[in-house]
Design a protein that fits this description.
By secondary structure, the protein is mostly beta strands. The protein has a 26-stranded antiparallel barrel. Strands 6-7 form a two-stranded antiparallel sheet. The radius of gyration is 29 Å and the shape is globular. The relative contact order is 0.08.
Length: 563
């Protein structure tokens, strides 16, 4: 059985190597072809190709991911005299499946001082609340003319997936949008943004609970810079119209608003409307920096143009940073406050406060001291005990980094200690939620010579519970070495780590983990190859008790060309 697995691994490695060699041959052929354009000019092709292969096998536990993962990446730039450079990004992976959203990627990018054009997969960034960092399969364009800016995007954000027991269904979803702005890129500017998302109700059978939706967003954002950029204000206000079900009845508002608005959004019985706004002034005087932000997102505000968006929340944050004595003293203070239930329709309002103060002191080239304090509290106004929230976490941290020379060897020692207090006022019947926490960490890095480093690590976390004298602790140990040869062309790192957790009340270890890790990286001129081998053993004394082990092999090879 083991021989068959080894043979299969070697076969996959051979396939990967063949793909890579074919690409290298093609790229070499392209570089060798000096095609004349005009009066003897040629095009040039530069970039990087990378191939990856991962084998992950778990015994004794469910394998919730593919055992084999194969990926191929290509990024490059084509330069032809007379036209802007054309950038290419390509990703091909075995993780791409018909029952999930797109995983493979292909993007063409043409850039000039006055234009940015993307074809294929694009990630346009319009504003904080309308469109930001989601993948769109289609095209986008940004045009700049003096102080004027016009951007447009059109594409598909989701493909149609029929629901089964093993995957999440979705309608085919398309979007379009535009941005109109005035101002310079890195100076004061103002933009108007509009985007709209539509589900195609005919793309899958919608007889289940999933219903097609529609989302339109419009807003204004801008930046104001003054005093040579030392003072900056960023702000945005955006509105959202969201229909939870496109099959619901339309609402006739032709007598209330211009008919042109219906082109952008059709009101329905299932529609909801919300507002989001944000303001962020900042002062930057070099060694002194200060700023605050205030934002509010209505409970009904929905934006499908964001990878993540939490609504029904109001936030306030401020920060202050100061450097003194030629950057030998650094002080940073931050505070954050938020509340939900903006329309008082929930049974209670949750308030969250978070603050931190951190000081970094450089005594000499060989010693640095770090001091920190953290606080985090939550409370609500619910009158029922079962739903009451009133807790606070506080911690103090001290860390020292010291460089010493001992036995003609250079040592770097990093040590940290933190003391935490965790309190829950409604946890009288659950003493496990009221405890003190002590954490110790010690790490060393010893430079034996120019090619060998020895590393060690020790970490211990102890929790002292307030009732019954129970104590739990977890310890972790690691030891390893880093070896560099051929002027650091070949670097190998070997690491052994072991950690264990224990409940002192029962004197039984509830978890043990042992892992071996070997990583080797070869880099010479334009070629980089790496391999990682890991073996992990888990002993979990949980209910139900489960022991298992994991074996991982990761291989990667990349080649840069044309540079």
């Amino acid at each position: 059985m083991k021989a068959r697995k080894i043979t299969k691994i070697l076969s996959k490695l051979s396939q990967l190597s063949l793909i890579f060699l074919i690409y290298l041959s093609l790229s070499a052929e392209i570089k060798a072809q000096k095609l004349p354009l005009g009066s003897g000019r040629i095009f040039s092709w530069s970039g990087e190709c990378q191939a990856e292969l991962k084998y992950d096998d778990i015994k004794g536990a469910g394998q919730n991911r593919p055992r084999w993962i194969r990926s191929l990446y290509l990024s490059g730039s084509l330069n032809v005299p007379g036209i802007p450079p054309i950038d290419l990004k390509f990703k091909l992976s075995s993780l791409n499946q018909s029952i999930r959203q797109y995983f493979n990627r292909l993007s063409l990018h043409v850039s000039k001082s006055w234009i940015d054009l993307y074809l294929g997969d694009t990630y346009p960034d319009y504003s904080r609340y309308t469109l930001k960092s989601i993948p769109i399969r289609g095209g986008s364009i940004d045009l700049y003319r003096g102080r004027f800016r016009l951007a447009m995007v059109l594409g598909q954000t989701k493909k149609a997936i029929d629901g089964t027991d093993n995957n999440v269904p979705s309608f085919r979803q398309t979007m379009h949008g535009f941005k109109v702005g005035y101002g310079k890129k890195n100076s004061s500017r103002i933009n108007f943004n509009y985007v709209k998302f539509n589900d195609d109700e005919s793309s899958i059978d919608s007889s289940g609970t999933l219903k097609p939706v529609e989302n339109a967003l419009a807003g204004i954002d801008g930046v104001l810079k003054a005093f040579s950029g030392k003072f900056t204000i960023k702000a945005e206000i955006s509105g959202s119209a969201y229909s939870r079900n496109l099959e619901s009845a339309e609402i006739d508002i032709s007598d209330k608003v211009p008919g042109l608005l219906k082109t952008f959004y059709t009101p329905r019985v299932s529609s909801q409307y919300g507002l989001a706004y944000y303001i962020n002034p900042n002062l930057d005087l070099g060694n002194t920096k200060a700023g605050f932000s205030y934002s509010s997102i209505d409970p009904a505000f929905v934006s499908l143009g964001l990878a993540y968006n939490r609504n029904d929340i109001r936030k306030f944050a401020c920060s202050f940073d100061q450097r003194l004595i030629n950057n030998k003293f650094f002080l940073s203070v931050k505070y954050f406050k938020s509340r939900d239930n903006l329309n008082n329709q929930k049974r209670s309002t949750l308030n969250t406060n978070s603050g931190m103060a951190n000081a970094n002191i450089v005594f000499s080239r060989s010693m640095t001291l770090n001091l920190g304090f953290r606080i985090y509290t939550q409370n609500n106004d619910d009158i029922e005990y079962d739903y009451k929230v009133d807790n606070a976490n506080r911690s103090f941290i001290i860390g020292i980094t010291q460089r010493v020379k001992l036995l003609d060897l250079d040592h770097t020692i990093t040590s940290n200690y933190s003391l935490g207090w965790y309190r829950d006022e409604k946890a009288a019947m659950s003493p496990g939620l009221n405890y003190d926490n002590h954490a110790f960490n010690l790490a060393t890095n010893t430079r034996v010579n120019n090619s060998v480093n020895l590393i060690t690590g020790w970490n211990r976390v102890q929790n002292f519970h307030h009732k019954g004298g129970n104590r739990s602790d977890r310890s972790a140990y690691s030891i390893g070495a880093i070896h560099r040869v051929f002027k650091s062309i070949l670097t190998t790192k070997f690491l052994i780590s072991y950690n264990t957790g224990r409940e002192r009340a029962t004197a039984i270890a509830n978890s043990n983990r042992l892992s071996f890790s070997l990583r080797s990286n070869y880099r010479f001129k334009n070629t980089n190859a790496g391999i990682k081998i890991e073996r992990k053993y888990y002993n979990e004394k949980t209910s139900p008790e489960e022991d298992y082990d994991e074996f991982v092999i990761y291989f990667s090879i990349s080649q840069t060309f044309g540079k």
